[in-house]
Specification:
The protein has about 450 residues and is of the alpha/beta class. The chain is built from 15 helices and 17 strands. The strands form 3 sheets. The protein has an 8-stranded mixed sheet with strand order 4-3-2-5-1-6-7-8, with helices on both faces.
């Protein structure tokens, strides 16, 4: 285990507290002026390396991790910026396949702190937490240095702080309705916001989408002269088998066929994330992605992929799985994976959500695959009150299948005990899935002794 300087960790917590006083990621003021001013003061670090930019509603972090592994497998020094974090802010900025440590994160903050103060002084709206972290990431990658940066958009696209980078490749994961307070409920309007990351002359790799989303993104691509590659047309999953510890895939990339790919992640949605990441890597290495990659390197890279908090098993007998599904689209993918890949005799869900989420939609997707629901709340200030959540849950799953536990440790304990209630003589395979918000999954990882990744 890596030893962490306790003084540095304490100082990092102080920085996190300071960042927490700024506007949170769930609150935006649609402008790139503040982040543009910051990177200008920093000497435009985001222009010192090529960028692969990822936007969409679900799957962005998984695609970023896969793309990171692929590029490193081919020999590049990679920086990766993702959000939100599960346990510690250092997870967001990764160098060469590992999150930066507390010491380096502190240095990154201290290096830009005075410039952040200058931007704050010149703006009616101070920089948000996400804007500061984005500046830290760009500066860290430039100093490292990296050969390429894999950058995940935070919320939206056009007005997202990451969009001051001009990406050579834009990967767009499935687009669905989420963050309604900021992006609205019109999926075409949401798609237009996501499409803002597409830059002139770039290559767009596009996951399978509803027709109205595809139209919007294609129109944006034509407008700026970008090349579009679509899942199901130019690339796609040709075959998928469930395997021990994950799945085995046959993928059609933009420039070649890749078979015998083992992906140590669960769910059909992860196979589609994998082929999107593969197409993005091909696009980066060749004009319009027409160059295939070394098959052995691709196999080796995918075999190393991890995705903390994405159907992650943290306990056996009964199994406890963590999944950060926080909207109906994500809950649908989770439910499908649980149904298809886990033969649980009895399955309980521990659910805690944020106030601004479609709670009824999330629960409706989970209800058919679970035997009971324990509602609870994370420690996040945005967490929905447990009694309010319980009222919605009663309407969706019914009183008989519902239990209310205000604190997460007791909720997990109750769910595990219930999962173990299997009739004598039956297969005792049973499980618990903890889901509903990234914050709660992060707290559960800590409770189960998992280190930040």
């Amino acid at each position: 285990m890596v030893q962490i300087d306790t003084d540095a960790l304490a100082a990092l917590r102080a920085v996190e507290t300071e960042l927490g006083r700024r506007w949170p990621e769930s609150r935006i003021e649609p402008s790139l002026n503040r982040i543009a001013a910051l990177v200008d003061l920093l000497g435009m670090p985001q222009r010192s390396y090529p960028v692969l930019h990822i936007a969409g509603t679900n799957g962005k972090t998984s695609v970023a991790r896969m793309l990171d592994a692929l590029l490193r497998g081919i020999g590049l020094r990679v920086g990766r910026y993702t959000s939100p974090h599960l346990q510690r802010v250092t997870e967001r900025i990764s160098l060469y396949g590992a999150p930066i440590g507390p010491e380096r994160c502190l240095e990154a903050y201290q290096d830009i702190e005075r410039y952040v103060a200058m931007v704050d002084a010149g703006s009616q709206v101070p920089m948000s937490t996400f804007e500061v972290l984005t500046g830290m990431a760009f500066a860290t990658f430039a100093e490292a240095p990296v050969d390429v940066a894999v950058v995940e958009a935070g919320l939206g696209g056009s007005w997202d702080a990451t969009n001051v980078a001009d990406a050579t490749v834009a990967a767009i994961t499935p687009v669905a309705v989420d963050h309604v307070n900021y992006l609205g409920s019109d999926i075409a309007g949401i798609a237009a916001e996501k499409a803002g990351i597409i830059k002139p002359g770039s290559v767009v790799v596009l996951a399978a989408q509803p027709p109205e989303v595809t139209r919007v993104i294609t129109a944006r691509s034509v407008e700026v002269g970008a090349t579009v590659a679509r899942e199901g047309v130019e690339f796609g999953v040709l075959h998928r088998d469930i395997a021990a510890g994950g799945q085995r895939l046959r993928l059609q990339g933009l420039g070649g066929l890749y078979d015998e790919i083992f992906l140590p992640l669960h769910g059909e949605h992860q196979s589609r994330n994998a082929v999107l990441a593969l197409a993005a890597a091909e696009a980066f290495f060749g004009a319009a992605g027409r160059r295939s990659l070394d098959v052995d390197a691709v196999r080796d890279a995918f075999a190393t992929v991890t995705a903390p908090g994405r159907l992650e098993r943290v306990r056996a007998a009964p199994s406890v799985l963590l999944d950060g599904a926080h909207n109906p689209h994500g809950a649908r993918a989770l439910a499908a994976a649980l149904r298809e890949e886990f033969a649980f005799r009895r399955l309980l869900a521990v659910v805690g959500v944020m106030r601004d989420k479609d709670v009824a939609g999330i629960l409706a997707e989970l209800a058919p695959v679970v035997d009971g629901v324990v509602v609870t709340a994370s420690s996040s200030r945005r967490a929905m009150d447990v009694d309010e959540l319980a009222a919605v849950a009663r309407e969706v799953v019914g009183e008989q299948r519902l239990r209310v536990e205000p604190r997460l440790p007791e909720a997990i304990e109750a769910a595990v005990a219930s999962a173990e209630e299997v009739a004598p003589g039956q297969d005792r395979s049973s499980g618990v899935v903890i889901t509903g918000s990234v914050a709660m999954v992060g707290e559960a990882r800590t409770l189960f002794g998992r280190q930040p990744q």
